[in-house]
Amino acid sequence: MNTTEFVRLLHFLICLGCNIPSITMMSYKLNKYDKSPLKILMVSTEYPPIPGGVGRYAKNLTEGLKRSGMKVSVLCNEKGKGDYRGIDPENGNNSKIILDVIDESVPDLVHIQLEHGLYGLKMDAINPSNLSTNIDEFYKECKIPIITTFHSAYPLRQWMELSKHPNLLNKNMITFPINLSKQIIAYWKRFINYRSFNTANKQKMQMSQANIVFSNYLAKLISENENISNDGKTLKNFTVIYHGAEPNLNMPLKKKEAREAYSLPLNRKIALFFGFMTHTKGWDILNDMDIPDDWAMVINQSENLYNPIKPTSIEGRDNQNRAPHTERKDTQHSKIINLNRGFLTDKELSILFYACDIIILPYTVTSGSGVMFDALAHGLPFIATDLGFFREFANKGLGIVVKRRPNEFAKAIKKLEANYSQYTKRIEEFNKDLTWDNVALQHFALYNTVLSKNEGIKNNLFPYASP
């Protein structure tokens, strides 16, 4: 029985007044029922067709919430297809725009997808207490409950890595001194603003009625290990709800068909490198990796609309003059295959995942990885840099973490290959938590908990889920 059928059956039994002692129900005050469905304002600067992981997440969550019977309106950037538009990293009026939309749409609560850079993170090189974003006033003035999903927080080392200047690798006698001075300034600004960034996260956490993260690691990092619950799922004002992910195809695609769609070799195993074209992805590790003979490394990069800094090229394998969205012609024999397809639709991405055997994530920085969850949803184990986020899921037996060295990744490929069925079996069980209907139901429960505490109780004991 799938999630939709279970919810319908449960709602039907409740309506009949059946006694189901094994299920613990929330306590509701009948005289305070509001008979309308929940109305949510979802705020995310990124929203399709804008490319980006935050936007893709917001869209899939919104659709899941709507299937569950909730009314969801979306506020996003002018280039996104939300119900309301206007917020932007460079717009100093973001707070006013959000508050005006709240006045117009009258939601029960507002849900912020918080990635500070998408709301205009401003750091001061002299006085770090001036660190701010363009939605700070919104948090102070909003009169309805706020739910915040945190998409980023960093330990100091990763925070400093974000200021790395890729052009330093270019030792041109003219540009090198200029780039070096820029790097020194960038490092200094990052260093003195680290504490202020953490404080800004905590302030938004405290001003929200509930906070969501995709991992225990991120919750502990933001709250600094305060008030950890016994089950490890809830920290101070935090709830862990995993990033939703599921294939975009009605039926799983056979590997042969998926590979033929991208002209990929059928006689080798394939490791996928996928994501935005940023230096923090760490794909330069391929320059020195001893790739096993029966493996091929497949790359697909796309440009980030709000982060134009490109990574160091993969030496000898990147033709910068090649036209975009064209495939290499040597895909059957090359050990490294760059698809060069740019941003993929959900359907195209599903086909690519089905064509591969594992995902490789040699990141230098990460707070969380939607790519990892997408890969798991398609049955792919991961090999990743030993960073806190990845370590949490490697400990669940879903992949392997290693030091960011080419030989360590090469050894991990062989180790994973030798125990492949054990990893895929654990992934199959874990994936039950990742469906968007499941994620929407967890959000629904959290929304109702928040509203009950704020005397805005709704009558939807369980949401309806449309077919």
TrEMBL record:
CDD domains: GT4_PimA-like (cd03801). This is Putative glycosyl transferase. Residues 309-331 are annotated as: Disordered. Keywords: Transferase. It comes from Candidatus Nitrosocosmicus arcticus. One of its GO terms (molecular function) is transferase activity. InterPro entries: Glyco_trans_4-like_N (IPR028098). The keyword Transferase applies. It comes from the Archaea. Residues 315-331 have a biased composition (Basic and acidic residues). Pfam families: Glyco_trans_1_4, Glyco_transf_4. Residues 51-230 form the Glycosyltransferase subfamily 4-like N-terminal domain.
